[in-house]
Structures are given as structure tokens and as C-alpha cells.
Amino acid sequence: MKLLKRVSAIALAICVLFGLVVTTNSSTVAKADSVPVQLYYLDNQGGRYGMSNYTVYVQINSNASNKAVWVHYCQEGSTWLDKQGGYVTTLPDGSEIWKVTVEGAYGILYTIKFIGDGQVYWANNNGNNFTENDILGTANIKVGRISTYDTLDKTVINFSATVKNVGFAKNVGMRYTDDNWASYKEVELKYDYSISGTNNEVWTGSIEIDANKKNAFKFCGYYKVNGNTYWDNNLGANYDINYIAR
Length: 246
Description:
This protein has one helix at residues 2-25; strands spanning 37-46, 52-60, 67-74, 80-84, 86-90, 96-105, 109-116, 119-123, 141-143, 147-150, 154-164, 170-177, 185-188, 190-194, 200-210, 218-225, 228-232, 239-240. With 246 residues, the protein is mainly β. Strands 9, 10, 11, 14 and 15 form a five-stranded antiparallel sheet that branches. Strands 12, 13, 16, 17 and 18 form a five-stranded antiparallel sheet that branches. Strands 1-2-6-5 form a four-stranded antiparallel sheet, with no helix packed on it.
């Protein structure tokens, strides 16, 4: 496993070198993020043998009638690949959320490509490309995948959320229900650690629910800072017991 991780790290470093060549030499790649397309947030689902499924959520601000979104990414080696995504929903401000999923990767380096009415735009993290550490783009909070375990009659649920550190005084928590929102409770999370190379923090906490109520369990995350409250409710669908890490 140590050898596999070392090989993956070397391969990703090669990706960085080749990725820099791609982003600096291609005439269609902007040196900084273009306005119509931005990273919204990244969902990382761990898998077997250290691999992960990465779902990149992309925010589009464009009135173009013909739109398409790709993730241009590199994983094990120097080959850059393209994966096309699809439309998910429209936010209250009129912007659209699209998503692209890259499956079975040991770690990715990527940029986002948007074509609207024949015009090409890129989001490339201000020329640095995105990595798996870049959880938040325009979103201020991203709920992490849960882990669970059962006791005799209870289910323990471990929460996490990634938030932007935009103020010292903050409250991060989860609102949840075990009766399909006939009622709800809230639990505050505690600061755990900061993600290296970013302005993001991870907050964690846990709860117990009756084991026989798992099918009626739903939750969403909130982040209160600087007089504002931000929510991650899975783009209106909320999360459930199946939103697990692996």
C-alpha cells in the first residue's frame, strides 16, 4: 500500500507538470478563471483500494442556448482526459449547476471547460488547476459523506462539513430528522482541522438515532458567519442515510 501511494504521488506530480504545459500553451485556456464558469463544490466518495469517485459540481452564469461542460483531468500518469457532464438544477439567482463524475481515481488534477454558443471558457483555479483539496468553489459549505455504525438498538452517525474560513466567530451544524421532517433537531459541529493550501476548515460531530428509523433519516448542513447563514441541502433534495463515505 505504501508503494502504491508513492507511485500515485509520483504520477500525480507528472500530471502537474504536463497539466501546466496544457494550461499555459493552449490558446483556449484562460490564465485566470473566466466569469461564466466556476467550481461550485467537489464531492469525494472514497472507494476500494484507495480510489475515489470525484463529482465536480460546476456553476454556470450564461444565457447561452447551447451549453456543454467538461472536466479536463489527469490521474495516474501524464495522460489528460475529458469527461462530459450534465445539467442538475437552477439556483434562485438564475445560475445553473452542472456536474461531472470521474470514477475510480487515486487523486485528480483538473480544470473545468464550458462551451456556450460556441465560445470556450475555462475555470482553472487562477492558473493553478484544481486538486482534491479544493472542496469549495463559490459555495461556502459542503456537507461531507457520513460514516455510521450500529449498536444494539442505535445507529451512530458521524458528520463532517467543509466551510470557508471567512470569519473567526462561526457556527457550523447539521439539521436532521428521523421522521421525514415531521420534526427535526440540530447538532453543532466542532472545528477539527484546516485543509492545507486552502482557506477551508473541516468541522465534525456525531449523533445517535434509533436504528429502526434509518429509512426516515434526512439531514442538511448550515454555516452561520458574519451575520449570514449558508446551507448545503443537496441542492434542495437533502441528504439521507445512503450518503456514506464508501
